[in-house]
Amino acid sequence: MTEKTHFVKPMHRYEVDDLDHPLMYVNKTGTDLIHDPILNKGTGFSASERDEFDLVGLVPPRVVSIDDQISRVEENYNRLPGELEKYIFLEALHDRNETLFYRVLIDNLEKLTPIVYTPVVGQACQHYGHIYRRARGMYLSSGNRGKFKKMVKNWKRDEIDIIVVTDGSRILGLGDLGTNGMGIPVGKLALYVACAGIYPSKTLPVMLDAGTNNEALLNDPLYLGEGHHRLTGDEYYEMVDEFIQAAHERWPMALIQFEDFTNNHAFPLLEKYRDKVLCFNDDIQGTGAVALAGILGALKITGQKLTDQKIVFLGAGSAAIGIADMITAGMAEEGYSLEQAREQFWFVDSKGLVSNLRGDTLAQHKVAYARDEPPLTSLMEVLNKVQPTILMGLSGQTGAFTQEVVESMNRYSERPIIFALSNPTSKAECTAGQAYHWSDGKAIFASGSPFDPIEYKGKTLVPGQGNNMYIFPGVGLGACVCKASKVTNSMFYAAAKTLAEMVSDHALSQSNVFPKLSDIRDISAKIATAVCEVAFDEGIANITRPADLFSFVQKKMYRPYYIPYAKI
Question: In 131, 306, 444, 456, which residue has its Cα 20 to 30 A from 31's Cα atom?
Fold first, then answer.
């Protein structure tokens, strides 16, 4: 039987952003108002609003509180048999009443984020063309090149704070899903709103449809993208550049977040634009920061320094290199040079140890971490040679951390740190239960997608989830609030340290290296404050520094509450 979700009924009420102006002035009436998901209250419109906005007869006569609306959502949600059906249901709510959607999501983050985002969003993306209901965001396709500056004007909101853009080429660990990958920007922006209080109307999901090399999709009559193989070379980069120029001209203050681009494009795009427009790549920088935070939390348990660690990575893509770069920055804080820090890393890709001596041409992003030593062909060979304290999984290879691998880590370290970070859950290198049982309960484990707590020898062990939602919402909020001119690596390092400092002693006693997701809005506010501090220190903030920066940040955060309406 499917377990029922009991939605939280919080005791507090959500406040509007500006208490001096409790009314929202609205220029829509009748069905136009009801069909606007940002403004729609459904049965929650008051009697006076129904009269003033020509809604009488267009909704059932009873005025219903938002708590009663939540009860209806809960009842219908619990009728649904599977996770994909629940995803579709919540997205339908998202499409018709954003205030209610975000109220439900914020109050039930731990229950609902696995549905709205990873791991279920991966399943939704695989079927996106088949479950499509309503357009959300913008599709800029290769067939419309040369028209992007005109097309972005079709989006009628002049204030955009956050744009999340993908080309669908590497969705989670699922590969090229083309325009089916639109579920990722939609989900990421839902987390921006829920976790960091970005206003829903100031978010924009974007799909850059450069084609797909997924033959199954090209042969699927319900696939919604362009029916050709992916653009390559200059054609591809010219298309991305046209988007960046169009978006930056239309919304010059908007933060652009690159999401789920293949490695061969992710690094060049970040390097090209990071100092030109306000942007970052979450797969590289966000993943790096959340993993570093988890490691710093784990070191609170082991009592060791970051520079004491020897770290093996299975996988050498953008996420892995992003993590290594962030850990390198942490080691520099402890006094290591860049060269000394990089000597603490060993990467294993599909060909074995990443080495300058193995005879192939290394991808540019791997060069800095390539070893000057004879190549080894398997993970076990590398583990036996290095005897690491930390093992990081970002390979997308289900079950790659075998019992032999975990047991070997247990021999090399009293408390081995094992992070199986590949998403979704089906791609994890090992499960939490495997890590704990094969290490006799000694492993400090974290994963990319959630696992349930494990009872082992009378002790509750809680696997941490190295979820980027701990990091990117706060970074984005901070960059927007202080009107930063760019996003720097120092901001992500500050975010990682802030997150690590918020892990409770109780969590650490259960081997959990991350704070509670239910505290995410407070976490995001504190990370945003730290990001603003960096921006002020680096001279890239474009506001006057407030006396109480944390309170200033908090007051900028959206709270889903039915604000009374008045006509313009």
Answer: 131
Which residues have CB under 8 Å from 507's CB, separation 6+?
Answer: 462, 513, 514, 515, 516
Q: Does domain 133-277 have CATH number 3.30.70.360?
A: no
Choice among 77, 102, 117, 199 that is catalytic: 117
CA 361 to CA 356: how far, in whole Å?
9
Q: Which of 188, 202, 526, 556 is catalytic?
A: 188
- Torsion angles phi and psi, residue 186, rounded to 5: -60, -45
Residue 22 has what pLDDT?
Answer: 63
CB distance 443 to 451 below 8 Å: no
Q: Do the domains spanning 133-277 and 283-568 agree at the CATH topology level?
A: yes
pLDDT digits (tens, 9 = 90+) for 505-532: 999 999 999 999 999 999 999 999 999 9
Q: How confident is the model at residue 308 (pLDDT cuts 50, 70, 90)?
A: very high
Q: Distance between CA 272 and CA 90 in Å, rounded?
A: 37
Superfamily of domain 283-568: NAD(P)-binding Rossmann-like Domain (3.40.50.720)
What is residue 136's predicted lDDT score, i.e. its pLDDT?
95
Return the domain boundaries, the chain: 1-116, 133-277, 283-568
Is 188 annotated in the active site? yes
Residue bearing tokens 């939540």: 70
Q: Give the model's confidence band at 2: pLDDT under 50 very low, under 70 low, under 90 confident, else very high.
A: low
Yes or no: domain 1-116 corresponds to CATH 1.10.150.130:
no
> Is there a catalytic annotation at residue 562?
no
Phi-psi sector, 476: left (phi>0), alpha (psi -120 to 50), beta: alpha
What span, in angstroms and rounded, lies between the C-alpha atoms of 364 and 378? 22
Which secondary-structure segment (H or E) carries 492?
helix 489-501
User: Averaged over 44-51, what is the pLDDT?
Assistant: 97
What pLDDT, on a 0 to 100 scale, did the predictor assign at position 5? 75
Chain centroid to Cα 104, Å, comes to 19
DSSP assignment of 284-341: IIIHHHHHHHHHHHHHHHHT--GGG--EEEE--SHHHHHHHHHHHHHHHHTT--HHHH
